[in-house]
Amino acid sequence: MRRDPESLAHTGKVVHVVGAVTDQVFTFLGPASHAVARTGREQVIVMIDEMRYRHHIANLHESAELVMAPAQRNPFKQWSAMHEASCKALLSGPLHAVHLHGMLPALVGARAVRSARVDAPVFFSPHAGGMINSLGSLGLLVRALLRTTRNAAIVSAPQETTAFDSWQSSQLVECPVGEVFFSAKRREARYPLIVTGGSAQVAQGAALVAQLAVLLSGEDLRISFNWIGAVDEVSRLSLKAAGVGLFEVVGDTECAARLSGGWLHLAPVATRGFPLFLVEAMAAGLPCVAFDCAQHREVIRDGESGFLCKTDRDMIETIALLIDDAALRARIGGEARRSARARFAASDFDAKLLAAYAQHSESQPGELSP
């Protein structure tokens, strides 16, 4: 008989082996830590203590025990320290599940699983932005190591699912969006405001936004741009020179408030991994204009819940169309919010993740290779 995931509290901990808590990893790990905590179950997160990602620690659930390997320049020493920390966490008490996040942490974690002779199910999330099929021998090695244990894959992007067709199980658990975005009230700025940004890794996007800001900066147009989120120093100078407003928000509440004044959201370049900021903008009710790439096609239905553009010219024409038509902005923005809620609500994420952990914890243990 299958048990309710909520009834499984206190029967073993979940151990996450993460490595560096990058922006991409955090979009999944952060909500996962809160989902596990809501069951009352203990959890341990094994991670590399990198200063540039330390801000994410405050947004992990406070009940999670952090096992932090100091950041080191020597890769061999770094991953040796991660292996030691992982073994320590795996041997610290009864396990409900082990979750390996990312390619290199999975290699180290799989070795630790074998060393500790773990009898719990092991889950692998590549967080590779759909690129695991192109990682060649590294991807094969991860799969080979993990196939020696009772394992399953939990993927956060639909395009990653085909890489695990031969596994015991592969489940799609997409990253959630906070309720604060869905409840944010739309208050369009007095004059056209285009919001964009999201991550420090999109330098190419910042350059394109700066170009568009200059191109559309005529006094008669009164169009302004806001970049929301982190940005590297070179891009910062370029954006400021183009008159783009810069807002490094802290937390979802501030981010949602900044989004609410926008007339539309612009995602001008291809995204690596899950396009969280685009989905947050959709959840906030903004009509979105996005570059036509695989990741954006996964979340936008062109002409219904947003617009996909193949060229810069297409983007400019679509931006002009939305600025000139308030009714169109309202219709596309409303459908974007409905679409995002149907697919990315936090409650659905919790249910899917906990069900995956519970289902495989009830299966019979397999033999570990020596």
Compute the CA-based radius of gyration: 22 Å
Pick out the low-confidence regions.
Answer: 1-9, 363-370
Number of helical segments with 4 or more residues: 13
The outline comes out as elongated
The overall average pLDDT, rounded, is 86
How far the N terminus sits from the C terminus, by CA atoms, comes to 32 Å
Give the strand line-up of the largest sheet: 3-2-1-4-5-6-7
The share of residues in helices is: 40-55%
* Structural classification: alpha/beta
The number of distinct β-strands equals 13
The profile of the biggest β sheet is:
7 strands, parallel
**SSE string:** EHEEHEHEHEEHEHEHEHEHEHEHHH
Strand content: 15-25%
Give a short summary of the structure:
The chain has 13 helices and 13 strands.
What is the secondary structure topology, with strand pairs?
Elements: E1 13-20, H1 23-37, E2 43-49, E3 65-70, H2 75-90, E4 95-101, H3 103-115, E5 122-125, H4 136-146, E6 151-155, E7 170-172, H5 179-183, E8 193-197, H6 203-215, E9 224-228, H7 233-241, E10 245-247, H8 252-260, E11 264-267, H9 276-283, E12 288-291, H10 294-297, E13 307-309, H11 312-324, H12 326-344, H13 346-361
Parallel strand pairs: 1-2, 1-4, 2-3, 4-5, 5-6, 6-7, 8-9, 8-11, 9-10, 11-12, 12-13
